[in-house]
Amino acid sequence: QVQLVESGGGLVQAGGSLRLSCAASGSIISLYSMGWYRQAPGKQRELVADITVSGGTRNYADAVKGRFTVYRGNAENTVYLQMNSLKPEDTAVYYCNVRLRIRAFYDYYGQGTQVTVSS
Fold first, then answer.
1. Among residues 19, 54, 41, 45, which one has the least CA distance to residue 107?
2. Least C-beta-crowded within 10 Å: which of 26, 54, 61, 108?
3. pLDDT at residue 29 greater than cutoff 90
């Protein structure tokens, strides 16, 4: 099993910044990528950003390009999401994700952390 522990959510005014943190532990083998998804009320969960373990390729949703940065920490199996210039439409529950590649892809998610941006 894989356990993910997130932190860093909260309430911030539009234009502000937050940093989300995630630490993964457990049976992490063949780690392919780490990243973040979000889900706003009444909407489907969507990819925000991720980064591959090999090569460090980053992938961002169009809505956050230029404002958010995903990066891995010095500690093993940690990932961060620096969120700047936050907008009310960024309000959502943010979920840490790890993707393993063992013949097929396997995704694991954390419990989620609430990010609320007030206008």
1. 45
2. 54
3. no
> What is d(CA 49, CA 36) in angstroms, rounded to the nearest whole number?
5
Tokens of 63: 């809505």
> CB atoms < 10 A from the CB of 10, how many?
13
- Specify the 3-state DSSP secondary structure of 93: strand
Q: Both tokens of residue 75?
A: 């500690």
Tokens (6 digits) for 91 = 């309000």
* Sequence-ordered list of residues with C-beta below 8 angstroms from that of 91, at least 6 positions apart, any chain: 40, 115, 116, 117
Question: Cα dihedral angle (43, 38, 119, 63), rounded to 10 degrees?
Answer: -90
Q: Which amino acid is at 22?
A: C
List Cβ neighbours of 3 (8 Å cut-off, separation of 6 or more). 24, 25, 26
| Residues 38/93, Cβ–Cβ less than 8 Å | yes
